[in-house]
Amino acid sequence: DAGVIQSPRHEVTEMGQEVTLRCKPISGHNSLFWYRQTMMRGLELLIYFNNNVPIDDSGMPEDRFSAKMPNASFSTLKIQPSEPRDSAVYFCASSPRTSGSRDEQFFGPGTRLTVL
Amino acid sequence: AQTVTQSQPEMSVQEAETVTLSCTYDTSESDYYLFWYKQPPSRQMILVIRQEAYKQQNATENRFSVNFQKAAKSFSLKISDSQLGDAAMYFCAYRGAQGGSEKLVFGKGTKLTVNP
């Protein structure tokens, strides 16, 4: 299995530009998570989906952030317009979400976003 | 809201020695899961060990073990026979088991250095 795939691995953009981060979960996993990691705030959950439906988006910082999961094998996190304070590492994770509810979340390699 | 606290921003250990990383959490739930994740310089998040709150027996995975004290809301990680490859950031995480939420709440992390 290829694991969770994220693209791009690094993104450098200028303030005001639109940024789209992409994630392909592990095949067969039906829960998908977007986390953000910064020095100040650590690792925070932004949003998660179960069976392509957003379940908890309470961590999405503001309206500039949006996430979609059009099908079971693809999700995007979009920031429009981007700001320097959005600079962080963004992780995508997926989980099989079996009835046991003790499932591990498998993390992708992350996307390092720098907004100048 | 649940919180996770790691009071040691940095720790160091000599190769082959034992080190213990501390973690405390705050929750009003009676059933939950606790995790330790490792993040090496590659940035990849790797699950080290997990503990179900309803289990009294402490989890172990080879050289890694936990000391779970439910009443004290404490969940420390012990690494025995430390190896150079154990050098990484270690994150303690909490996940509730009630209500179906899959949200992971992370501590700020402890940076572990292993000295040869």
* Gyration radius over CA of chain A: 14 Å
Share of helix of chain A, binned: under 10%
What would you call the shape of chain B? Answer: globular
Number of helices of chain B: 0
Nearest-integer average pLDDT of chain A: 92
Percent of sequence in beta strands of chain A: over 45%
Terminus-to-terminus distance of chain A: 36 Å
Largest sheet of chain B: 6 strands, mixed
Task: Work out the helicity level of chain B.
Answer: under 10%
- Give the beta-strand count of chain B: 12
Largest interface: A-B, 24 and 21 residues
Gap from first CA to last CA of chain B: 41 Å
Describe this entry's structure for a reader.
- The complex is a heterodimer of chains A (116) and B (116).
- Helices cover 0% and strands 53% of the residues of chain A.
- In chain A, strand 7 and strand 8 (74-79) form a beta hairpin.
- Chain A has 116 residues and is mostly beta strands.
- The model of chain A has no long low-confidence stretch (mean pLDDT 92).
- Chain A has strands spanning 5-7, 10-13, 19-24, 31-38, 42-50, 53-56, 65-71, 74-79, 88-95, 106-107, 111-115.
- Chain A has no helices and eleven strands.
- With 116 residues, chain B is mostly beta strands.
- Chain B is 0% helix and 52% strand.
- Chain B has no helices and twelve strands.
- In chain B, strands 2, 5, 6, 10, 11 and 12 form a six-stranded mixed sheet that branches. Chain B has a four-stranded antiparallel sheet with strand order 3-9-8-7, with no helix packed on it. In chain B, strands 1-4 form a two-stranded antiparallel sheet.
- The relative contact order of chain B is 0.34.
- The mean pLDDT of chain B is 94.
- Chain A binds chain B through residues 31, 33, 35, 42-45, 48, 50, 55-56, 89, 91, 93, 95, 97, 101-102, 104-105, 107, 109-110, 112, and chain B through 33, 42-47, 50, 52, 91, 97, 100-109.
